[in-house]
């Protein structure tokens, strides 16, 4: 770990498949999360390592000095030695003091859950924005731990200063880290402002966002729905950046689908904070597709973890559809939600139909008659509503449409016109595609 002072990421597993020993501890009433060991294995592998041995323990409370008890520390040391592993990965977060004492006692490098996940994120960051976000998260995590990090680094002889940093050096570094954090926050703020400006131009867009646990097949589903060419990999956190594409041809109005970073149980809070702008797309969605992996024995726990992350993001009240992917691998059908296979192309048409129905259900439909060709008002309606038909007869115009932002927004816009008009609320969209009629018949 060399994130302490500069954020220059040196992955914990530097060469090839480094052997590691994982340690899973359940505390007090909590039992080890189902699938936790399996998940640790995937996390380690996504970070470029390989689990040589896995140990677990239950404790009434963490040991303040070494997290696990002294007997367990000795057992871990022996297991690491026997397996030829020089790195320990804990499935919990540790204090800097615990890290240095564990390293002292075992002679191994010690990495906690947050560091592990951040390493994978850092490794997968491709765009400038993702790189900024991960560096910010790493610095935020490292700052309160700098003294521990210094201990860590000087003892491991990793990269920084040979003479062993004293308190003065530590202060210099804290100051440098804070300055860098402030600069990064500033740049992120500007990126966010630009995004808001860009978004406000288009009000007539219905936004659908793919969310779900990492590796359930969100990106594959994006490709199946939009032919998007999004990166797909059997790895945790292959996707960090948001990709947005237009979804098929919906009559009137645009529907876009976004693919974004996946969630994991106990997602580090520093990452959530730093990825705020990436995750804004989730908060601003009109509809969330909650994608789960139907073939995973942990699908319900994963879905629950996704739900609580969404609540934490302030996205708890957005309408959602549960989609169970990888139906081709699963022997059963889900109790609720739609089963699909993004890879096998199963259920994709049904999913598109459901999205369309969800979109149509939020529109407020109206039948508007104007004693005028309409001009600017008609342009506004086409931009801000899902227009299903336009009938022009002599000097009058009739438009049947669904309003994205409510009928009141339409009325408010029409108040600005000097010609007579009449707006009538209707229950739903007329069937059939967009119709343009002009001439003698007024349907
Ligand atoms: N068998 C099967 N595998 C799938 C399906 N959808 C995705 N996958 C695989 O699951 C892995 C993760 O997919 P990806 O789209 O990157 O998941 P994401 O992390 O949720 O975006 C990849 O190896 C995909 O090929 C599916 O419907 N069936
Ligand atoms: Mg993905």
Strand content: 15-25%
Side-by-side strand order of the widest sheet: 6-7-5-8-9-10
What is the general shape? elongated
Distance linking N and C termini: 71 Å
Q: Under the CATH scheme, which class of the largest domain?
A: Alpha Beta
Helical content (DSSP H or I, runs of 4+): 25-40%
Structural class: alpha/beta
Molecules bound to protein: guanosine-5'-diphosphate, magnesium ion
Number of helices: 14
Poorly predicted sequence stretches spanning 5 or more consecutive residues? 1-10, 150-165
Give a description of the structure.
With 443 residues, this protein is of the alpha/beta class. It has 3 domains: 18-176, Rossmann fold (3-Layer(aba) Sandwich), CATH 3.40.50; 204-360, Rossmann fold; 363-438, Alpha-Beta Plaits, CATH 3.30.70. The chain is 40% helix and 21% strand. It has 14 helices and 15 strands. The chain has helices at residues 36-46, 70-83, 96-106, 113-124, 128-142, 146-156, 167-200, 218-226, 269-274, 276-283, 299-312, 348-362, 376-384, 407-414, and strands at residues 18-27, 49-59, 87-90, 109-111, 205-212, 243-246, 254-259, 287-293, 320-325, 338-339, 364-370, 385-393, 396-403, 421-425, 435-438. Strands 6-7-5-8-9-10 form a 6-stranded mixed β-sheet, sandwiched between helices. Strands 14-11-13-12-15 form a 5-stranded mixed β-sheet. Helix 4 runs antiparallel to helix 5. The longest helix is centred in the middle third of the chain and has 34 residues, at 167-200. The termini are far apart. Residues 1-10 and 150-165 have low confidence and may be disordered. Guanosine-5'-diphosphate (GDP) binds at residues 214-220, 232-234, 238-239, 262, 325-326, 328-329, 341-344.
């Amino acid at each position: 770990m060399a994130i302490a002072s500069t954020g220059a990421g040196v992955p914990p597993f530097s060469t090839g498949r480094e052997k590691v020993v994982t340690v899973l501890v359940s505390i007090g009433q909590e039992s080890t999360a189902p699938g936790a060991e399996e998940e640790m294995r995937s996390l380690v592998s996504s970070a470029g390592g390989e689990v040589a041995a896995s140990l677990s323990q239950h404790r009434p409370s963490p040991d303040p000095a070494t997290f696990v008890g002294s007997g367990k520390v000795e057992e871990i040391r022996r297991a690491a030695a026997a397996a030829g592993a020089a790195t320990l990965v804990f499935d919990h977060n540790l204090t800097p003091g615990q890290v240095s004492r564990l390293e002292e006692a075992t002679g191994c490098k010690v990495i906690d859950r947050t560091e592990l996940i951040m390493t994978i994120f850092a490794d997968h960051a491709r765009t400038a924005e993702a790189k900024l976000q991960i560096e910010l998260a790493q610095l935020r995590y490292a700052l309160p731990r700098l003294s521990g990090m210094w201990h860590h680094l000087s003892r491991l002889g990793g990269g920084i200063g040979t003479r062993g940093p004293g308190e003065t050096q530590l202060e210099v570094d804290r100051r440098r880290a804070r300055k860098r954090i402030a600069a990064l926050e500033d740049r992120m703020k500007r990126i966010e402002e630009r995004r808001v400006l860009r978004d406000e131009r288009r009000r007539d867009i219905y936004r659908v966002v793919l969310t779900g646990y990492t590796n359930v097949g969100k990106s594959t589903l994006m490709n199946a729905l939009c032919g998007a060419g999004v990166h797909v990999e059997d790895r945790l956190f292959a996707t960090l950046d948001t990709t947005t594409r237009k979804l098929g041809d919906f009559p009137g109005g645009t529907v876009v689908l976004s693919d974004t970073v996946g969630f994991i149980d106990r997602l580090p809070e520093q990452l959530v904070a730093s990825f705020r702008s990436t995750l804004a797309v989730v908060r601003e969605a009109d509809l969330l597709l909650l994608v789960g992996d139907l073939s995973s024995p942990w699908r319900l726990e994963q879905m629950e973890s996704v739900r609580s992350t969404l609540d934490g993001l302030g996205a708890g009240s957005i309408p959602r559809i549960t989609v169970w992917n990888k139906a081709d691998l699963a022997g059963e059908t889900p109790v609720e939600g739609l089963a699909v296979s993004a890879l096998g192309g199963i259920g994709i048409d049904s999913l598109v139909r459901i999205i369309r129905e969800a979109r149509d259900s939020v529109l407020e439909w109206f039948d508007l008659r104007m004693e005028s060709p309409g001009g600017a008002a008609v342009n506004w309606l086409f931009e801000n509503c899902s227009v299903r038909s336009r009938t022009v007869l002599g000097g009058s115009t009739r438009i049947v449409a669904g309003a994205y932002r409510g009928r009141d927004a339409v009325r408010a816009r029409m108040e600005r016109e000097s010609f007579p008009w009449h707006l009538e609320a209707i229950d739903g969209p007329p069937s059939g595609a967009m119709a343009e009629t002009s001439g003698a018949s007024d349907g």
